[in-house]
DNA sequence: TTGTAGGCGTTATCAA
DNA sequence: TTGATAACGCCTACAA
């Protein structure tokens, strides 16, 4: 149905080869130039990218694979990735794998089959060394937000350990001695790192950790809700809680509201990630803020670099710094 | 680099045609079957979807185009669209156009060039009859959440008018006489419809509308913030406010928090869309809830139907009902 | 059941 | 500068 180069050739009386060359920036006589332009307009010709991709082995598109489309942290990063990609002439195919490790593999394959020129992924796991296998095939690939043990790959993430360290230290220096943490699941490295920061700062301040103050959630709203309730139900509850991702922060706040807990008087809270939510909550929430724009930028630039063939200092690992945004949800017990 | 059918043919000693047939479900001898399977595994052969698409003129992928990736309402719908698409063997290419009407056109073209089998779009505008033109080319296409004037296309959206009607009626029956509305911009039909509901219910209750109570925002957080402040700064401020989308609802709440307005005692509020936020806010927010799962489902099923060639009752318009979720942010002045 | 051959819409080489 | 022609990897009659 759609017009092809062949049609344009017929229309102009020129050959297919000439049209093709012109389309791709080659030189043709001025009069042919306008002839072709006219034909293209008249026929509404558009290059068939599929056919072109078949020939050139380049699709000028990058696959982006994230755990969940309904997670605004992820989609914001994607949006920033795309900003720089598009400026470099690349487009994006975005998929999510609904936090399902099997689907992750499937979607990854989908992208590979679509012949994308590279893949940026926020990975969950590496079933049977799958990613390692893929990397051997030299498809450019960048991990974002998380790394996978034993997989050598460019990785952009955040200094989770010190993010936690600073947040909890802030609580400690405000006089808090019993600090709860709502941590994420074991299979995600960010959870581990964030927990480590919590542990390390306790060590550095020679504070013993009460294991009952460490609650493990699933990084979703529901589990934040449950964990916070568990913390409040302790015989000896904490005076402050640090929640290690956005969704769980939401859940935690719901629990607080429901139980009518006065923040920060009855409980101090530090949450994670979302600037909007920080201001929507009352009192405004002190949060750890991740540099999402930067994460996206660096990720995009890294994959572009690799696609160009620049394998300088591969595999690279970029650790971006977080920021602790101070608001009003933490009580100063020393003051 | 990657193995092709040719390689499999060589490896097995069979012909390309036989391999192809087997791959596509044709019959081959049992012994050849295992021979081919072995080869496929050994060579790690995967069909090149690009080449296949070129031949079959089908890519088994649907393009999805939304205004903004950072908008959780949109991405949630997409997630639901994908759920049903994937079950039908279709994959998804997701793009956003950053609320930029020119980019919208560009991205749409990108999808067309990728030879997607259909496009689901949350549209903004139709520059120069662009969409109408596209529709003539018979590419299956469905609009979601919004329609475009004078463009005949399957459309799935929400009964915005009655959504507003019911929300505002709820306020009226609680004794509110001065009800502010924070409405969206003129170029989006949902804004218009939601405003209409506000107007109609006033008419039906023979209440005169004070134009100063109608504030026009941009559907973003910032404008919700500004508009709510404007409403509060009126000489004769409203006793209740209805905010017509999620982002503006966030902004409005920020303003309320900042000014320490007691909800619902000093001001009643009805917001839009997000179940999580409704519970994160205190007191919990009464909101209009859109059926995002259903929207996604219907949209996906519609495009699948059209792709199959079923043009029954085209163009269809499905209006889904919203729900008013009652929480604690509205004061009953009659009580 | 299997294989031969032509074509999908491009690009790229090499003559003309 | 232009054009004929052979790929790219796959599918599909049609013939064997």
Please outline what is shown here.
Chain A is α/β, with parallel strands linked by helices and 335 residues long. The first copy, chain A, has helices spanning 5-12, 16-23, 30-43, 49-56, 72-87, 101-113, 130-136, 160-173, 189-204, 221-232, 246-258, 275-280, 292-307, and strands at 61-66, 91-96, 118-121, 141-144, 154-158, 179-183, 214-216, 240-243, 268-272, 286-289, 317-320, 323-325.
Task: Record the SSE blueprint.
The structure is a homodimer of 335-residue chains.
Chain A (H helix, E strand, L loop, with lengths): L4 H8 L3 H8 L6 H14 L5 H8 L4 E6 L5 H16 L3 E6 L4 H13 L4 E4 L8 H7 L4 E4 L9 E5 L1 H14 L5 E5 L5 H16 L9 E3 L4 H12 L7 E4 L2 H13 L9 E5 L2 H6 L5 E4 L2 H16 L9 E4 L2 E3 L10
Parallel strand pairs in A: 1-2, 1-3, 3-4, 4-5, 5-11, 6-7, 6-8, 8-9, 9-10
Antiparallel strand pairs in A: 10-12
Helix pairs in contact in A: 1-2, 1-3, 5-13, 8-9, 10-11
The first copy, chain A, binds a DNA duplex (16 and 16 nucleotides) through helix 2 and helix 4.
Note down, in words, how this protein is organized:
- Two copies of one chain form a homodimer.
- By secondary structure, chain A is an alpha/beta fold.
- Chain A contains 13 helices and twelve strands.
- In chain A, the strands form two sheets. Chain A has a six-stranded parallel beta sheet with strand order 2-1-3-4-5-11, with helices on both faces. In chain A, strands 7-6-8-9-10-12 form a six-stranded mixed beta sheet, with helices on both faces.
- In chain A, helix 5 packs across helix 13 (292-307).
- The model of chain A has no long low-confidence stretch (mean pLDDT 94).
- At the A-B interface, helix 4, helix 5, strand 2, helix 6 and helix 11 of A face helix 4, helix 5, strand 2, helix 6 and helix 11 of B.
- Chain A binds a DNA duplex (16 and 16 nucleotides) through residues 4-6, 14-18, 20-21, 23-24, 26-29, 32, 47-57.
């Amino acid at each position: 149905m759609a017009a092809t180069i062949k049609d344009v050739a017929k229309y102009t009386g020129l050959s297919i080869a000439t049209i093709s060359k012109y389309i791709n920036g080659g030189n043709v006589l001025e009069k042919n130039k306008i002839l072709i332009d006219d034909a293209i307009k008249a026929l509404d010709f558009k290059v068939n990218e599929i056919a072109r991709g078949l020939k050139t082995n380049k699709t000028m598109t990058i696959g982006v694979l994230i755990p969940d489309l309904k997670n605004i942290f992820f989609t914001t990063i994607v949006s920033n990735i795309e900003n720089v990609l598009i400026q470099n002439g690349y487009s994006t195919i975005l998929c999510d794998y609904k936090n399902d490790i099997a689907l992750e593999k499937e979607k990854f394959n989908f992208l590979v089959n679509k012949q994308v020129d590279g893949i940026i992924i926020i990975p969950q796991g590496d079933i049977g060394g799958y990613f390692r296998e893929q990397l051997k095939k030299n498809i450019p690939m960048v991990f974002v937000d998380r790394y996978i043990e034993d997989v050598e790959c460019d990785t952009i993430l955040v200094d989770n350990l010190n993010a936690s360290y600073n947040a909890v230290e802030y609580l400690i220096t405000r006089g808090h001695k019993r600090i709860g943490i709502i941590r994420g699941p074991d299979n995600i490295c960010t959870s581990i790192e964030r927990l480590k920061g919590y542990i390390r700062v306790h060590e550095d301040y020679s504070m013993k950790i009460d294991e009952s103050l460490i609650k493990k959630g699933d990084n979703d709203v529901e589990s934040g809700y449950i964990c916070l309730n568990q913390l409040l139900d302790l015989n000896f509850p904490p005076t402050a809680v640090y929640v290690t991702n956005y969704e769980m922060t939401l859940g935690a706040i719901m629990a607080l509201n429901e139980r009518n807990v006065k923040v920060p008087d009855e409980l101090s809270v530090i949450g994670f990630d979302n600037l909007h939510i920080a201001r929507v909550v009352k009192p405004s929430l002190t949060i750890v803020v991740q540099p999402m724009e930067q994460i996206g930028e660096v990720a995009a630039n890294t994959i572009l670099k690799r696609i160009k063939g620049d394998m300088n200092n591969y595999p690279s690992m970029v650790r971006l710094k977080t920021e602790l945004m101070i608001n009003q949800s933490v009580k100063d017990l020393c003051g």
